[in-house]
Amino acid sequence: MDVIVGGGVAGLSVAWRLARAGRPITVVDPAPASGASHAAAGMLAPVSEVTFTEEPLLRLGAASLARWPAFAAELAADAGLSSPRELGYRADGTLDVAFSADDLAALDETAGFMEKLGLRVERLTGRECRRLEPMLAPSVRGGLLARDDAWVDPRRVTAALLTALERLGVAVVRARVRELVRDETGVRGVRLGAGDGGPAGDGGPEVRHGGAGAPEGRASRGGPYPAEFGAERVVLAAGAWSGGLAPVPVRPVKGQIMRLRSPEPLLGRCVRGMVHGQPVYLVPRGDGELVVGATQEELGFDTRVTAGGLYELLRDARELVPGVTELEVADVVAGLRPGTPDNLPLIGPGGEPGLFLATGHHRGGVLLAPLTAAILLSETDAPPGPDGLVAEDLVALCSPGRFAS
């Protein structure tokens, strides 16, 4: 049996692909889909997010984006949905706009870099931007259209993954992993426990206790389950909490995000922007929801939603789309992205026999989910998924071995 520690979009995607390949799988997380995946906006935007220092991340993102159409179609089918649209999957591109003259100069510089990389982007005037998105402010100076970008609703994606796993007979144990079980041969399982603020998968409440006082979890298929699970392989996909279970260079990066609501969608596609040098994005849903995010704060395991963080989001979003101030506030949340020193994920063998990693995705957990699952399939000798093998150079970019020293 393989045990997946963590029930966010990365861990659930790995579990789903391995289960489809015929592996016996157990997922352990105290509250699946409640952490960073629950907070995420769901942008699949490797092109519009490219920076001068993150070309390797662009390559990973582009490769994973190419896998998303098949991934979404197969997931929708396995979860009993009528189409990928029910996952909130849309591929209408991202409009990246500039508010001030300085913002436009910076955007022009980025556009030149994108064009050198051969990316498909289209420079637009302010008037052309407003023709595409009439709700943009008249003060928008210009923009870029990245037609190949897409987005999904991560909450729908993780719900579909949990449904697909249930249909495949995979147990999801709602418990906290206290530690990895090791012997002289390597990692051989996980031990559950109530703990006291310890590693928590994708976040959530403490493990429930059994009647005899021994820590036990309740699973999606009944339970109770024992306090220890043996495993041929353990996949650590615990996001920002991964460092509490294994010596991996992952830290929490706080992001505050808000969801607004209107009877009809305010925008037709994702809008990103720079407002006086500060980034902001607005992601529309078909039901009228508009996701506005997100701050980046190095504050450890702090998940408080603050007035200052929300003020910054609304202030900058209003400069680009004034109508946001008329919308109903539907939800505010803070999540913890799992960051690494080079902003690249840790996917592959974890440095100990029996341990594999699927963590450290920082801002790209949703985007990189299909690629993460495909790499883990190849690294664990499972049959390749329907989207085929992953190129060796991409596998090397994600290798945890780069931090072995």
UniProtKB/TrEMBL annotation:
Record-linked InterPro entries: FAD-dep_OxRdtase, FAD/NAD-bd_sf
Domain (FAD dependent oxidoreductase): residue spans on this chain: 3-376
PANTHER family tied to this protein: GLYCINE OXIDASE, SARCOSINE DEHYDROGENASE-RELATED
Keywords, in A-Z order: Oxidoreductase
Record's compositionally biased regions (Gly residues): 192-214
Name listed for the protein in its UniProt record: FAD-dependent oxidoreductase
Lineage, top ranks: Bacteria, Bacillati, Actinomycetota, Actinomycetes, Streptosporangiales
UniProt keyword annotation of Cell membrane present: no
Organism: Nonomuraea typhae
Region ranges (Disordered): 191-224
